[in-house]
């Protein structure tokens, strides 16, 4: 049977663990490698097929374009992302989240991959939508740590969980993107402490009024 | 006299306000327009020369490559950046800084330009160095507002001015780069309030020890 002779389902919809899933895993792994090594400009479906040892026709038929492939990679990254830790305190939870982001951005392959995907999102709407979805998944995963902190009385009622979760990530991404240097563990600690301090002060309460 | 017949100095070193400066202004304006409209991948020196109504040879001889042109654009952006406001209070100063960043990123041309330059910096070392320098200039300009707040007793001694200044910008850039949406005025207000709350809590004190 030729590698391209079976009907092509939507990525990942058929027989998880079967050939469809194995092909997707190999192709997304190869796409991630190319992105991390060379950036989105050099991402080429034929090259990805060769690296993944998958028929070129399969890759073209199933993904069709570089933005579609990057979008599927982001879907996979969201699916693979680690569940949040529950430490029992807001600072412990925010610290765990900050360290997860910091380690991801400081990892040579994953840090380069995030820089490439964020760069790609600046000039392609489909990639931008997939990136936005990726972060929405992360925020949804981590939001309960803020809700629990409100319930425990650690944070004011009405605190917007997504604002707090995003406040933890923001300085780490900003450092990577504006200095080109991966954030270190003390930067993660500062990110967690800063997000907590701001949240405790009520900065992320919904409908927060301007205050002097 | 042909447009390319005079000796070519380093950009901007000769007769400010003269032909050299006028050529640089026109070329950088055109380069910024192309970057904002189409991104760095489509930036082409011949196209820039045509838009700037400057001889192609001049552009190639003076800048030589796209990364060199983008680096010079960032030097110019740093030179053109507005002086900081002094309001007499830390929150007032941070708010002014946050609104400056927010308005820049929400401006269609300048927001697109920053996204393009940040994307370009992810895959070119020269652009990355120029971008880093751009932000160092901004931090140097705004650091005194933190030093004055320490002197007034609004912030703990040993607070790192660059950490505070960068904390104001981080959530605004993070929003633009991960959601594709320009931050609004309430986001600027939250950024200023959050940076102040974290700074007041001592998060940005040099050599800050981990705390529970």
CATH architecture of the largest domain in chain A: Orthogonal Bundle
Terminal Cα span of chain A: 72 Å
Main structural class of chain A: mainly alpha
What is the chain-wise order of helices and strands of chain A? HHHHHHHHH
Gyration radius from CA atoms of chain A, angstroms: 20 Å
Task: Work out the count of structural domains of chain A.
Answer: 2
By CATH, the superfamily of the largest domain in chain A comes out as: Tetracycline Repressor, domain 2
Q: What's the CATH first level of the largest domain in chain A?
A: Mainly Alpha
- Give the largest interface pair and sizes: A-B, 44 and 43 residues
How much of the polypeptide of chain A forms β-strand, as a percent range? Answer: under 5%
* Rough outline of chain A: elongated
pLDDT below 50 for ≥5 consecutive residues: which ranges of chain A? Answer: 1-7
Question: The biggest beta sheet of chain A, please?
Answer: none
How many distinct beta strands of chain A? 0
Q: Do you know the CATH topology of the largest domain in chain A?
A: Tetracycline Repressor, domain 2
Give the oligomer, counting copies of the same chain as homo and different chains as hetero: homodimer
Organism (chains A, B): Streptomyces prunicolor
Keywords (chains A, B): DNA-binding, Transcription, Transcription regulation
Pfam families (chains A, B): TetR_C_11, TetR_N
Domain HTH tetR-type (chains A, B): 21-81
């Amino acid at each position: 049977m030729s590698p391209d002779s079976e009907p092509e389902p939507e990525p990942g919809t058929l027989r998880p663990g079967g050939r469809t899933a194995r092909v997707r895993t190999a192709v997304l792994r190869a796409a991630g490698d190319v992105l991390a090594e060379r950036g989105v400009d050099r991402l080429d479906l034929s090259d990805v097929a060769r690296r993944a040892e998958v028929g070129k026709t399969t890759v073209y038929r199933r993904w069709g374009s570089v933005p579609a492939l990057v979008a599927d990679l982001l879907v996979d990254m969201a699916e693979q992302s680690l569940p949040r830790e529950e430490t029992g305190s807001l600072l412990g939870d925010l610290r765990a989240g900050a360290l997860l982001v910091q380690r991801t951005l400081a990892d040579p392959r994953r840090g380069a991959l995030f820089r490439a995907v964020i760069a790609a999102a600046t000039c392609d709407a489909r990639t931008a939508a997939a990136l936005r979805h990726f972060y929405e998944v992360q925020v949804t995963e981590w939001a309960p740590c803020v809700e629990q902190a409100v319930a425990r009385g650690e944070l004011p009622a009405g605190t917007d969980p997504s604002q707090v979760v995003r406040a933890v990530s923001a300085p780490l991404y900003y450092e990577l993107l504006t200095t080109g240097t991966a954030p270190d563990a003390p930067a993660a600690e500062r990110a967690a402490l800063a997000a907590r301090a701001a949240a405790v002060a009520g900065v992320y309460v919904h409908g927060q009024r301007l205050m002097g």
